[in-house]
Specification:
Elements: E1 2-3, E2 7-13, E3 25-31, H1 46-49, E4 64-71, E5 77-91, E6 112-124, H2 129-145, H3 151-161, E7 163-164, E8 172-174, E9 182-184, H4 198-206, H5 208-219, E10 223-228, H6 231-244, E11 253-255, E12 272-277, E13 290-294, E14 299-301, H7 313-327, H8 348-366, E15 374-378, E16 384-387, H9 389-396, H10 402-409, H11 411-420, E17 424-425, H12 429-446, H13 450-466, H14 498-518, E18 527-528, H15 535-538, H16 540-546, H17 549-563, H18 567-580, H19 584-595, E19 603-605, H20 607-623, H21 632-640, E20 643-648, E21 651-654, H22 668-687, H23 727-736, H24 745-755, H25 761-790, E22 809-812, H26 837-855, H27 860-889, E23 910-919, E24 940-947, E25 950-957, E26 967-972, E27 976-982, E28 985-987, E29 992-994, E30 997-1002, E31 1006-1012, H28 1018-1032, H29 1041-1044, H30 1055-1079, H31 1085-1089, H32 1130-1133, H33 1142-1149, H34 1152-1160, H35 1165-1169, E32 1177-1180, E33 1196-1199, H36 1204-1210, E34 1221-1225, E35 1232-1236, H37 1242-1249, H38 1258-1276, H39 1297-1303, H40 1315-1325, H41 1332-1339, H42 1361-1368, H43 1377-1385, E36 1391-1395, H44 1397-1400, ...
Parallel strand pairs: 10-12, 10-13, 11-12, 19-20, 35-38, 36-37, 36-38
Antiparallel strand pairs: 1-7, 2-3, 2-6, 4-5, 5-6, 8-9, 13-14, 15-16, 17-18, 20-21, 22-27, 23-24, 23-31, 24-25, 25-26, 27-30, 28-29, 30-31, 32-33, 34-35, 39-42, 40-41, 42-43, 44-45, 44-50, 45-46, 46-47, 48-49, 49-50
Length: 2017
């Protein structure tokens, strides 16, 4: 029995101490005055009496009571029950403590009554809160009511006379002597916490979810801080958290009420549960890692840096369901139609116990099977038991469960194991719940209603623990009268007599001692703890799923083959076994199977047997984690020291020397758990003979109560049963079930502990010594094992403990990548730490010995001897390993497959011989043999080769089942876009770790991921990388394979002298001109006019001419052959004139591109040389010397009436001088299709505005006039301009776009939404689709308010998405004025000009009759580049797709199909305008060689059936892509100088679009998809010179302008001399190797590989109108397929040779019948098109075979095909088209024309109505850190996951998805004048934003800076820059470009070429610097700027501090965007 209270303390206000703000308290009296021996007095008690501080009050207050908790140094809790009341104090203060000084006059001093707090405190080690309240209340009542009772008597009785029995004792009734009657009821169990109703109150305050979160946070060792204005609530909440922890105990800091003076305790790094008063909340809000819980508001705040793990979902859901049924019982019947009468909630005490029952069940479910993971180490003298955490987590599947890991690692669980681990002890409620919980869950699963019954039963037991007496005792507690505290005259609390109190205490203690002798408290009964459900049974269902009998059968057979020395059979099934070892069950089965082949602890093997066994062990360890939760490493320990091989006489190598490189061996906890497991086995064997008579059958025992674990049966955690693998062993399992069960270690320990008190002293000592010897012997054994596995075989190498590092060296392919430093992936550790192996292992083993021996009770002498033994063992082992290491190196190397040499093209040479490597799997599933099926072709073993043409991997699969096949993956080296070094790779089939690897990506959609063999050194890999980049990045195109691969002679270098002189002359000229410009001199006009053919100075546009310019590349040279010269004459360029020799023109006219002009009627040979007035067009030779436009062909088609001199003038108005040229003419409407580049802003804008006061020079005015004349000539050449009306002669019922437009103007005629509706309307109207009467009636209809969008599949009257968005956002006037004007503007005109928005919106169309300027949207080249990168990653991923980000999602994010759709829509508009309107179309976009070429080519393919033939398509590519120029060198990155720009697949996009059209119209094309793939592959392969260089001019310089195929037998040199110029580069002799078209024609003559046999010329539609919806577009299979049998199939001769070589490798009999045998084709391995021909190709082969058998010479397939005749009468046969087909076609045409109409309407709105709209925003991406709402959709825009865009001008915020729909209402830009677009105002040297303004006086072209067209300038100005070497300060002109993300600098503002640039992506910081050494003397102190990049540090100086800060702001703004 113990005292009810230890101390009684009186604490009052300390009047002597004067403190500001709050006073302090002091202990007035304490009883007893002398400390108890077992409970010393607590210092600082007065702080807890007033936690917020002692203060005087002006008002009387109610008495308060609460209980605080103090923890002493021994971690014992002391409960301080505090009763506080207020006494009257007479004072003369200037101000009271709780009143503000401002409310009183400081000079007025008067006497007043104040109230000081006084506290009565009981300090106790027991938590009887109610008894404390009653006792202190009685003392207060006696004091207030002046009862005739001495307070000293009351205090003495409380401290000395009231004794409380221990838990389980009887009820105690007592009185403290004031007429009171009280009772104390101890709980029944000492381990169960008492909660009363605190848990229920906590859940009522916080709610279910918040309460659970707080509990989980406390359970996982987080810091919890409660807030409340009630101290009692703080104590109750803390008490509830502690009660919910049961069966765990909270072991950290526990302070339910924390005083204000101790708030710094909250900064402790350890977890805590604390509470503070609500008034102190603001003082602790800055704590970053504390969870704040507001009890009064039910709120919880978890910091961002804190993550609270949650229990598994199934357990949590069950707990929440139970809590809802307890706390919210009406929730279940809330939806009932007839709800039952409302039930009253159960009392709080009962709800409290029910809630606690839920959490006890939750712990029992969480800890299910924990007793099966207990490991016994010692039984005597005290049991020592540990918990095998890894085994528990592995069996329960909780290895990655963060909540379970945190709970098991906590101090509470450690105490739980120590307290509840012993198998013989006192049990409580949790032990019973744990044993019965599995049965209850199974019952509740069948009967859910049982759950509440079980909870109520458990709650009843908890209630009985606190209230065991059924009849409550009625207590009598005297209380003061109501309002007694507010009496005016209140006597002070008296000073008690200490002597009297001490006498009463002493008397009570004497009586207590007498009662103690007579007391007979029944002790708790100890018993065997129930085991509960074994952990193996808990996971039986999971195991049954994993246990695949077939895999285990294969595993067993493989092991049997190995030990039967059937190595070949074992190797065949070895890959399947390695795959099977991914299963946990298979790994455990492997260890058991191998253990059966160990005899007498030794198994000597042959070399091959040993290698295979080691590979199996390594694979099992690799697939298992380092935690060893499955016990695989534990089971391998004895096997590692058993399997061995004999290297030579006296030298034996054990398996442990080959499995050391696994992380598990370096983890100390693994060794400890393994040691404990073996000790438990030995302890069990020590006592087992005494209990053999107790063995019983398994059937007669209660399974859940058995302490037997599967780990005690000889195999740790071995849940796999061999009886499940074979049928014979299945029968054996039946007999095993009847065998007697062996007694477990815990059961033996329980029995030993039970009988231990009855054992004699001698036997006790003997048992203790035996156990100590057992632990010591196992420690010696494990010390040796650790030495074996920790000392490496080669001690010269640093120890490696883990392979889990993933360093990569990634880089983009650049010219300098080969010289980059490679990553050393040999070791994850610092090589400088060369620690001694012996000392390292000694430290590791010593730590292990100290821990396990001290815990296992080993004597100090034994521990000392063990420490002395370890160094000797290590030294002996090192000597043994030296011989083993030496002899193992002498073993013959493993035979590796022969390196297969690839077949090369003629002229292709190997640059680097094959390096042995392994082809690894990437993100593609093809060829893996997984979900897609087929053979497992990858990984493959072979070699990687580098040739002058390709990068090749060739080898054989590692899988033995397909090892006879050849795997080949290659791509042209010129297509390599990225090379990345990858680190450690594990080859599962070979069980090898490979340190070196490369990942190569190609723009032909190939990904080569290889890991090099161990024999390949790092220097060889580095050499390969350098050579790859050298071949990939040649200095010029003439060093590529297209020129060097086929040459039979050395390249001629005579041209170099001429180029050198030319470059010197050019350099000198530029220098003189630059000097003259700086001096203010100007070149004379006469000097320019002196030459006949002059390349005039380009009219440079204003800044930001086009935001969609051609990748802003106009400032770069067109190619590497020449620079952009300011003035070039004929003698300087040295280009011969083609017109000088008529034969040259004739030969030029034989080119397919020029023959196409004759076919179209655009000129012929006669018109090229002389003018003819009868023909409307002619071929002009104005560009014969390429002096007008270098990128245009020599002959161009223009109207007959335009002069050459006029062309030279108006060419200035276009970028790159690419003026409008006729490229196609409609055969029926005679409309023209023209192409050109975008307009220069000054030239055409000034010309189109006709503003005479603009100050334009005469040169520009003449150019504008000539441009205007030229456009009028084009209008005159269009037949539609010569007549008022136009009627189409086609079969299209909707004859023009006007008809479609008119439909939207009224309701009388509408195109139905679907063909079905159209059919109904036709049936009602007599079957006509459209009629003139309908059209006339519509035309007479009044104008509507808005334009309706027709042809929609959804809405008849709905606008397009973009227009609808504009309407909703104010950009579209719903009143209809703007749209009506736009529609009215869509009148039939003769010429449509499609241009860029910023060029077209200011055009005044009135000055150009019958012309219309339409601004259009298109994707820039930079968008194409970014899209292609994403497309490559989507089609060839380097790693498997994640579940959230799949293939289709990646394709969507690439926007590739959206770009195709955009081009198709633009081309469709061109088609409709030419075909339906009969109007000419001029496409003027960017520089005229990217999107312009795409649109024009697609339109021609759709319009002209000739271009859908093979010859026509060849002519189209020759004309549009080759003759008119395309930057192949730059876009395809063909040379080192163009690598930084990135690959831009412009031509590939065009080919993809043609593929989409071919797929929709398969009967309209003569060629097939393979033809398109062939061109797509070879236009970047650099095998042929066809797509080399950028234009005809460069090909003239190269010397191969004309096609040699048409020159007969004349040699190339003779032809070149005859043309008047010499070839600069050697040309190949073989015509077949010269160009792609020759090679294509050759292959086409040989076979029908390019032919589309479905081509039907008679049924071919003249004009195609494909669907452009994304749903109608497909990803081209060219991007997705590959042929592993021979690599890409586009080098046809290589494919045939490779297939022939593979056939030659077959046996003779098989090779002889290769053509007749049946072959299994795999889609990813074989090329189905080539190897499985269709019907036509098969018939051609059969005909060829029959002709050969008849002895005839086989005829070509084309000859046979042409001999076929069409069926008779086919021309006269009319095809009957069904009505549905006609409706579908009509509907498709209407949709096509609707798209065209939308483009025109949108363009008109941008052009004419742009001024009616506000200006656009300038958006930049930003991450919002505060809650912000989107100004468009009003949704929340906040956080890292929701980045948005922000207008830098007006501050408009919106989502990225909302940006396109935002109205263009930027308030900042409204003030900008319209004239701002006409000129550029350059700021002064100080810097500043580039603003637009009126032009200065002077010539038009000279008012622009000469080099900055096509650039985006965010900020610019002069800065001083410090040099890198000489540290000199030089002034430079700097330009900040936010589009290119660059900071460029020039020598001067007028300079045309930048001296260099700083990539902002590499900038790390931008900051001001006060001063710099060596700076100019007049420099401002704060004008310096430091820009720190990853490479170097740049120092700049501005003119003053203001401009420096402005530059810093601009730079930081760009960096953040």
């Amino acid at each position: 029995m113990s005292r009810l209270a230890d101390y009684f303390v009186v604490v009052g206000y300390d009047h002597e101490k004067k403190r500001s703000g709050t006073g302090s308290g002091k202990v007035l009296q304490r009883f007893p005055e002398k400390d108890w021996d077992d409970s010393p007095f607590t210092i600082g008690l007065e702080l807890f009496c007033q936690p917020t501080g002692h203060a005087l009050s002006t008002q009387q207050q109610q008495p308060t009571f609460y209980v605080a908790v103090l923890t002493d140094i021994d971690a014992d809790r002391h409960y301080c029950a505090t009763f506080t009341f207020y006494e009257t104090v007479a004072m003369t203060p200037s101000k009271p403590d709780d009143v503000d000084a401002d409310d009183h006059d400081a000079t007025l001093i008067h006497h007043s009554l104040m109230y000081a707090p006084k506290s009565l405190v009981l300090v106790s080690r027991l938590d009887y809160f109610e008894a404390f309240r009653n006792c202190l209340g009685v003392i207060y009542t006696v004091h207030m009511e002046n009862l005739q009772v001495q307070i000293e008597t009351l205090v003495g009785n409380i401290l000395g006379c009231v004794q409380v029995p221990p838990p389980g004792g009887p009820q105690v009734r007592f009185s403290i002597g004031a007429g009171d009657r009280q009772a104390l009821q101890p709980p029944l169990s000492s381990t169960l916490p008492v909660s009363n109703d605190s848990v229920a109150l906590f859940f009522d305050q916080m709610g279910i979810n918040n309460a659970i979160r707080v509990f989980f946070a406390a359970l996982t060792d987080h810091k919890i801080l409660f807030f409340s204005n009630s101290y009692s609530r703080l104590t109750a909440a803390s008490r509830a958290i502690i009660a919910l922890h049961y069966p765990l105990k909270y072991s950290y800091v526990y302070i339910p009420i924390l005083p204000v003076s101790l708030l710094e305790v909250l900064n402790t790094p350890t977890p805590f549960v604390a509470g503070v008063h609500g008034s102190l909340k603001d003082q602790v809000l800055d704590l970053l890692d504390v969870i704040l819980v507001d009890l009064d508001g039910g709120d919880i705040r978890i910091p961002e840096c804190v993550t609270v793990p949650v229990i598994s979902e199934s357990i949590l859901a069950r707990a929440k369901k139970s809590l809802n049924m307890i706390l919210l019982p009406e929730l279940l019947s809330a939806d009932y139609a007839f709800p039952p009468s409302p039930r009253k909630l159960s009392p709080p005490v009962q709800r409290d116990k029910e809630i606690r029952a839920v959490f006890i069940r939750m712990f029992a479910e969480l800890f299910t099977g924990y007793r099966s993971s207990l490991t016994l180490i010692r039984i005597h003298p005290e049991p020592f038991i540990t918990f095998h955490k890894a085994s528990f987590l592995g069996h329960r599947g909780m290895v990655e469960d963060e909540f379970a890991l945190r709970v098991l690692e906590g101090m509470g669980f450690g105490a739980f194991v120590a307290e509840r681990g012993p198998p013989y002890r006192v049990c409580d409620i949790f032990d019973e719940v744990y044993a019965t919980m599995p049965d209850q869950l199974r019952t509740e699963h069948v009967e859910p209603d049982k759950m509440m019954e079980h909870i109520k039963e458990l709650a009843h037991q908890l209630y009985l623990n606190e209230c065991p007496n059924p009849q409550p005792y009625v207590a009598k507690i005297p209380k003061p009268t109501e309002g007694a505290h507010s009496r005016i005259h209140m006597p002070p609390f008296p000073v008690l007599n200490p002597r009297l109190v001490q006498d009463i205490i002493d008397e009570g203690m004497v009586k207590h001692n007498i009662k103690t002798k007579l007391a007979n408290v029944r002790p708790y009964q100890m018993r065997i703890v129930p085991m509960g459900l074994p952990i193996t049974s808990a996971t039986e269902r999971q195991r049954l799923v994993e246990n695949n009998a077939r895999r285990l059968e294969v595993l067993k057979n493989c092991v049997c083959f190995i030990f039967e020395n059937r190595i070949s059979d074992a190797r065949i099934i070895f890959p399947a076994v390695l795959r099977a070892l991914k299963s946990r069950v298979a790994r455990l089965a492997l260890t058991q199977e191998l253990s059966h082949h160990v005899h007498a602890n030794r198994a000597m093997l042959e070399h091959q047997q040993f290698d295979l066994v080691v590979r199996l062990l390594n694979c099992a360890l690799q697939n298992d984690s380092s935690l060893d939760e499955n016990g695989v490493a534990y089971n391998i320990l004895p096997l590692a020291t058993a399997f061995c091989r004999k290297l030579c006489t006296g030298v034996i190598q054990f398996a442990y020397t080959c499995i050391q490189d696994h992380a598990v061996w370096g983890i100390l906890s693994f060794w400890e758990q393994s040691f404990y497991m073996d000790v438990q086995k030995q302890i069990r064997q020590l006592y087992l003979p005494q209990y053999e008579e107790h063995l019983v059958s398994e059937k007669s025992r209660d399974g859940p109560r058995s302490p037997m674990t599967p780990r005690e049966n000889g195999d740790h955690a071995l849940s796999w049963s061999r009886s499940s693998s074979t049928a014979s062993e299945g029968r054996k399992s039946c007999s095993m079930a009847l065998k007697p069960r062996e007694i477990g270690a815990l059961e033996i320990a329980a029995e030993q502990l039970r009988v231990w008190p009855t054992v004699t002293k001698d036997k006790q000592e003997e048992a203790e010594n035996n156990e100590e010897s057992t632990v010591f012997s196992q420690a010696i054994h494990y010390a040796n094992r650790m030495v074996y596995l920790r000392v490496p075989l080669d001690t010269s190498q640093t120890q490696r403990t883990s392979h889990h590092y993933d360093g990569e060296n990634s880089s983009t392919v650049t010219a300098s990548i080969g010289e980059s430093d490679s990553y050393d992936a040999e070791s994850g550790f610092d090589e400088t730490e060369t620690a001694d192996v012996a000392s390292t292992v000694t430290k590791f083993v010593s730590r292990f010995v100290d821990k396990v021996c001290s815990e296992g009770g080993v004597t100090s002498e034994h521990i000392k001897s063990l420490h002395q033994m370890v160094p000797g063992v290590i030294a002996m082992h090192l000597e043994t390993l030296e011989a083993v290491n030496r002899e193992s190196k002498r073993l013959p190397p493993i035979q590796k497959p022969k390196i297969l040499t690839p077949i090369l093209l003629p002229g292709e040479e190997i640059v680097m011989e094959g390096l042995r490597a392994y082809l690894l799997q990437d993100g593609r599933e093809e060829g893996l043999g997984g979900n897609l099926g087929g053979p497992s072709l990858i990984p493959a073993e072979g070699a990687i080769f580098l040739t002058t043409y390709r990068i090749i991997f060739k080898g054989t699969p590692c899988d033995a089942y397909v090892c006879e096949q050849v795997v080949m993956r290659c791509f042209p080296v010129s297509t390599m876009t990225k090379e990345k070094k990858i680190s450690v790779q594990y080859i599962q089939h070979l069980d090898q770790w490979l340190q070196e690897g490369l990942q190569l990506r190609s723009n032909t959609f190939q990904l080569l991921k290889v890991a090099f063999d161990e024999e390949v050194g790092s220097e060889n890999v580095e050499t390969l990388r350098k050579l790859m980049n050298k071949v990939r990045n040649p200095p010029s195109v003439f060093n590529t394979f297209a020129f060097t691969g086929h040459a039979s002679q050395q390249v001629t270098h005579m041209h170099k002298d001429k180029e050198k002189n030319a470059s010197l002359r050019h350099f000198a000229k530029r220098t003189l001109l630059k000097t003259a410009r700086k001096a203010g001199l100007k070149s004379k006009q006469s000097q320019i006019k002196k030459h006949k053919y002059v390349l005039p100075t380009p009219p440079l546009p204003r800044k930001n001419t086009s935001p969609r310019s051609s990748d802003s590349e106009s400032d770069r040279p067109n190619s590497e052959i020449f620079d952009e010269l300011s003035i070039v004459d004929e003698g300087e360029v040295m280009v011969p004139s083609l017109s000088s020799d008529p034969k040259n023109v004739e030969r030029l006219m034989e080119k397919p591109s020029y023959q196409d002009y004759q076919r179209l009627g655009l000129g012929n040979l006669s018109s090229a040389g002389q003018r003819s007035r009868t023909e409307p067009f002619r071929l002009s030779t104005v560009n014969a010397t390429y002096s007008v436009c270098r990128s245009y062909p020599a002959l161009i088609a223009v109207p007959q009436s335009v002069s050459d001199e006029s062309i030279r003038k108006f060419a200035r108005c276009h970028r790159q001088y690419r003026f409008p040229v006729i490229t196609w003419r409609h055969p029926r409407t005679k409309a023209l299709l023209l192409r050109a580049s975008g307009f220069h802003s000054r030239g055409p804008i000034g010309m189109l505005r006709h503003n005479p006061g603009s100050g334009a020079s005469s040169g520009e005015a003449s150019s504008s006039i000539e441009q205007e004349k030229y456009l009028r000539m084009l209008v005159a050449a269009t037949p539609i301009s010569n007549r008022n009306t136009y009627s189409a002669q086609g079969s299209d019922s909707l004859t023009s776009l006007d008809s479609l437009m008119m439909v939207g103007l009224g309701d009388n005629l509408r195109i139905p939404d679907t063909p079905e509706q159209l059919r109904r309307s036709m049936a009602q109207s007599g079957g006509g689709v459209a009629s003139s009467s309908n059209r006339s009636s519509v035309a007479s209809h009044p104008k509507p308010a808005s334009l309706n969008r027709i042809g929609s599949l959804r809405d008849k009257g709905a606008l397009s998405p973009s227009m609808e968005a504009q309407r909703q956002n104010g950009s579209l006037d719903t009143r209809g004025d703007i749209i009506n004007n736009s529609v009215q503007g869509l009148q039939r005109v003769a010429l449509y000009v499609l241009g860029e928005k910023n060029q077209m919106k200011n055009v005044k169309v009135d000055a150009f009759p019958k012309c219309d300027f339409i601004p259009v949207d298109f994707y820039e080249v930079r968008h194409v580049k970014a899209s292609f990168k994403k497309l490559m990653r989507a089609c060839c991923p380097s790693a498997p797709y994640s579940s959230e980000h799949g293939f289709l999602k990646s394709i969507e994010e690439s926007e590739w199909l959206s770009q195709l759709q955009n081009i198709l829509q633009l081309s469709g508009a061109v088609v409709d305008l030419l075909d339906l309107q009969g109007a000419s179309v001029m496409v003027c976009l960017e520089d005229g060689w990217d999107i312009t070429t795409q649109v024009v080519c697609v339109a021609e393919v759709l319009l002209d059936p000739y271009y859908r033939t093979i010859e026509g398509f060849k002519a189209l590519v020759e004309k549009e892509w080759l003759s008119f120029g395309h930057r192949f060198t730059h876009r395809s990155n063909q040379t080192a100088a163009n690598q930084a720009s990135g690959f831009a697949p412009i031509l590939l996009q065009f080919l993809d679009i043609v593929h989409q059209i071919l797929r929709q119209f398969p009967l309209s094309f003569e060629f097939n998809q393979y033809f398109l793939k062939f061109i797509a592959y070879h236009y970047v392969s650099n095998r042929f010179r066809t797509f080399m260089l950028d234009n005809e001019f460069e090909r003239v310089e190269a010397g191969w302008l004309l096609d040699e195929r048409r020159l007969g037998g004349t040699s190339v040199e003779e032809v070149a001399e005859g043309q008047g110029f010499s070839p600069k580069h050697g040309l190949p002799h073989g015509a077949g190797a010269s160009g792609l078209w020759d090679y294509l024609d050759k292959q086409h003559r040989k076979s029908a590989i390019f032919t589309n046999f479905m081509f039907s010329p008679l049924d071919n539609e003249a004009v195609l109108r494909p669907y452009s919806n994304i749903s109608n577009l497909e990803v081209w299979d060219y991007f997705l397929t590959e042929d592993l049998a021979h690599g890409p199939s586009f080098d046809v001769e290589l494919v045939a040779s490779e297939l022939r070589q593979n056939t030659d490798m077959l046996p003779d009999s098989a090779a002889a019948t290769a053509d007749e045998r049946r072959v299994i084709l795999n889609s990813c391995y074989d090329n189905i098109t080539l190897q499985q021909p269709d019907f036509f190709r098969h018939q051609f082969r059969e005909m060829e075979r029959l002709e050969r058998e008849l002895g005839h010479l086989p005829q070509k397939w084309k000859f046979q095909w042409d001999k076929l005749e069409c069926p008779a009468g086919r021309e006269a046969m009319q095809r009957q088209t069904s009505m549905s087909t006609q409706l579908v076609r009509s509907h498709g045409r209407s949709i096509h024309k609707r798209s065209t109409l939308e483009i025109l309407v949108r363009g008109k709105m941008l052009g004419e109505a742009a001024r009616m709209f506000s200006q656009p925003h300038r958006f930049e991406k930003i991450t919002y850190t505060t809650p912000t709402y989107c100004d468009f959709c009003q949704q929340l825009l906040w956080g890292f996951s929701k980045t948005g865009t922000h207008c830098v001008d007006c501050g408009y915020n919106c989502h990225e998805k909302c940006q396109p729909m935002v109205p263009k209402t930027c308030s900042k830009l409204k003030s900008v004048a319209d004239t701002a677009a006409s000129a550029v105002n350059i700021p002064r040297a100080g810097g500043g934003d580039v603003t637009a303004g009126p032009s200065a006086s002077g010539p038009a072209f000279e008012s622009f800076p000469p080099s900055h067209h096509g650039e985006h300038r965010t900020h610019e100005g002069y800065l001083y820059k410090q040099g890198a070497f000489f540290k000199q300060w030089k002034q430079r002109w700097f330009v900040l470009d936010s589009m290119k993300h660059q900071l460029r600098y020039y020598d001067a503002m007028e300079d045309s070429h930048c001296k260099g640039f700083i990539d902002l992506a590499e900038v790390e910081s931008v900051q001001p610097v006060k001063s710099m050494p060596g700076a100019p003397k007049k420099a401002d102190e704060n004008s310096f700027i430091e820009v720190r990049t990853v490479r170097r540090i740049y120092n700049f100086m501005a003119s003053d501090a203001k401009f420096a800060q402005e530059w810093i702001d601009k730079l930081q703004g760009c960096l953040q965007s």
